[in-house]
From TrEMBL:
<dbReference type="GO" id="GO:0017038">
    <property type="term" value="P:protein import"/>
</dbReference>
<dbReference type="InterPro" id="IPR050790">
    <property type="entry name" value="ExbB/TolQ_transport"/>
</dbReference>
<feature type="transmembrane region" description="Helical">
    <location>
        <begin position="72"/>
        <end position="96"/>
    </location>
</feature>
<keyword id="KW-1133">Transmembrane helix</keyword>
<feature type="domain" description="MotA/TolQ/ExbB proton channel">
    <location>
        <begin position="51"/>
        <end position="146"/>
    </location>
</feature>
<dbReference type="Pfam" id="PF01618">
    <property type="entry name" value="MotA_ExbB"/>
</dbReference>
<dbReference type="InterPro" id="IPR002898">
    <property type="entry name" value="MotA_ExbB_proton_chnl"/>
</dbReference>
<feature type="transmembrane region" description="Helical">
    <location>
        <begin position="108"/>
        <end position="129"/>
    </location>
</feature>
<dbReference type="GO" id="GO:0005886">
    <property type="term" value="C:plasma membrane"/>
</dbReference>
<comment type="similarity">
    <text>Belongs to the exbB/tolQ family.</text>
</comment>
<feature type="transmembrane region" description="Helical">
    <location>
        <begin position="12"/>
        <end position="30"/>
    </location>
</feature>
<keyword id="KW-1003">Cell membrane</keyword>
<keyword id="KW-0812">Transmembrane</keyword>
<protein>
    <submittedName>
        <fullName>Biopolymer transporter ExbB</fullName>
    </submittedName>
</protein>
<keyword id="KW-0813">Transport</keyword>
<keyword id="KW-0472">Membrane</keyword>
<keyword id="KW-0653">Protein transport</keyword>
Amino acid sequence: MNLLEFIDKGGIIVYILIFLNIIGFTIIIWKFTTLPQVNKTIAKIATRLDYNHSINAQIEYEIKKLETGLVIIKNIAIISPLLGLLGTVVGIYSSFEEITIKGLGDPTIFSGGIAVALITTIAGIIVSIPHQIAYNHFISLVDKIEIKAKKELVREECR
C-alpha cells in the first residue's frame, strides 16, 4: 500500500490530521527562524522599555508576543491523538455494523474497519509527537529568553 492509499483509507480524519500538520509545521518553521535570536530579542526588549511603566509588565508583554502561535502547536499535539482515537472508534464501529449486516462468514468484512482504526491511530500519533516536542522546545526557549532579559534589565538598573 502506498502513502496515498494509506491516507485515503484513513478517511476524513486523516485528512483533518494532515491539515493540522500543515498548520502546525508552518508555525514550527516560523518559530525556529525567529525565536533562537536570543540576543536580538533581549536587545529589542531593552530598547522598547518605557521606564514610566513597570519593567516586568513590559517584559511580560514582549514574552507574550514571542509565545504567539505556541498555543496552536500545543493544541495540535493534544488534539491529534484524540482524533486518532476517534478514528479508531469509528473504524471499529463500522466493522461491527458490517458484521451485523453480513455476519461473521467472511473475515475481510471485519478487516476494513480495523484498518481504518489502525491508520487513524497511527496518523494521530505521528502528528502529535513532533508538535509536542516542538512546543516543549519553544516554551523552554521562551523561558530562557525571559530569564536572560530580566537579568540584563536588573544589571541595567544597577548601573
